[in-house]
UniProtKB/TrEMBL annotation:
Domain DDH stretches: 79-237
Full protein name: Single-stranded-DNA-specific exonuclease RecJ
Database matches in NCBIfam families: recJ
Positions of the RecJ OB domain: 464-569
DHHA1 domain residues: 359-449
SUPFAM superfamilies: DHH phosphoesterases
Lineage: Bacteria, Pseudomonadati, Thermodesulfobacteriota, Desulfobacteria, Desulfobacterales
PANTHER family: SINGLE-STRANDED-DNA-SPECIFIC EXONUCLEASE RECJ
The entry's keywords: Exonuclease, Hydrolase, Nuclease
GO BP: any one term: DNA recombination
GO MF term set: 5'-3' exonuclease activity; nucleic acid binding
Amino acid sequence: MEKQWQMLHPDEKTVRLLEREAGCPPLMARLLAIRGIRTRRQARRFLNPLLRDLTSPLEMTGMPAAVDRIRRALTAREKILVFGDYDADGVTATAVLVSFLRQCGAQVVYHIPYRMAEGYGLGTDFIRGRARSIGADLIVTADCGSSSHEAVHLASELGIDTIVTDHHPVDRAPESAVAVVNPSSPEGQTDLAHLAGVGVAFYLVVALRAHLREKGFWKTRPEPNLKQLCDLVALGTVADVSPLILDNRTLTATGLEQINAGLRPGIRALMRTSGAPQASADAETIAFKLAPRINAAGRVAHARIACELLLTDDHRRANRLAAALGRLNGRRQAMESDVLQSILSRFDRRPELLDRPALVVHGNGWHEGVLGIVASRLARQFHRPSIVLATGNGTAKGSARSVEGIDISVALNRCEDLLDRFGGHPLAAGLSLGTDRLADFAACLETAVEALAARREATPTLSIDARLPLDDVTPELMDGLARLGPFGQGNPHPLFVDTGIRVKDCRIVGDNHRKMVLESGSSGNGARPAIQFNVPGDLPVADRFEKIAYRPQWNHWNGKKHLQIVIEDVVR
């Protein structure tokens, strides 16, 4: 889809101030100003993210009650049950809580539901069955529980206390919970609403360690180093596509340091089996190499496999589990491809479907575990909200994914009378409904999306940070740009523009990726290898571009790294 290019223009006074007071080169000062940095102090904290600058976890409502209840459980040797979600965020949040509680000497077990049989969230059947059978005294949820009103109430009636740790927005939290720690709940701390579920779990651990220190708990046992848990926080935060801003950025930067140190056997094995560059992982490594394998367990088998990988200290077991996740990821990719091709073939037969403001597709027998990924690919390819549903036994269940500017949770809320269940974020949600309501739901959703889309730009915008000739992309520049990372949602890679580009070599590789060698029109002092992903197969090869929008990156291969230009868009 054609994109509208927009050159960003930061306040020039702020740029000059950062140059003068923070000692930033002109380009770095410009990039910082674009990212909202206004003062020397803000520049220092942004360029040097440190754990000591994190927001106090006690600012989250419910935190004092939560840590006090867990301390009492530890002291009384009560059985603690950690109940997590089956995606990467939930798995890592579970691993954070279980790891820390084990270091406390707690009687702790964990449970992650099987997607296909148990579905999402804490339910009453689990409370009546598993929770009672193991004699749980306290349940601590991880990345779920904010909408589990009936289950939390039943647990309370049965004498089981519940602490909810979550980050999903809800209208009201479970009243029967001992504590609800959710920065996105109405009673929560909105300054931390950007945290992923694993971030909330980590903050509970931070507050609990400090609380236990006050009570003299660590006099008889070693106090855990919480920095060692940040690898899990980084993994879950990036996997959940949480914005890499503020505390998330600090936690992810610290976590990447831990990942690259190779200290956790499970992540080390996952790095090796996924082909990730050793000791040089970044947020993209998590997003494209590690997270898909963690998620594959919950999508096509059981998420416990992934959680055990993250918890084990046994290198041999870690290697076996990482290899198993690799095989599951291969199965996931095959299932995803089958569903996607089925949908694209349907669009070929009925192109009028692509004229609608939202895509609602369903099929009998589609595997529920891959529907979210397929919906994401459709949303990106066709730049509109996409809902993919699996049908069977009179029910349609699946996932919704949206695009910037259209809050899919708001759209679904306007169709709530047609839905049995739904919930999620502005860009992603899950839902279920009766198949007899599918046509009415599609019509309702299209109306809702049309109303929301009326307030956004129809053409996607490409925001350009600065003009930068290809010749100026050097290893020294890359070192400076790296200090702006980790890059991801909410903190994108700096995007540059250059003009009069000569194409010295061009060939198609992989699935319609265009590999090129480019020369800048500004001087022609040296060529730069470049790649443009997902180019239409019928796009003719050019020998010159009027201008390119690009981001530079290191390409890691066979233990070496080379500068590479990633093309985001071109004008011929």
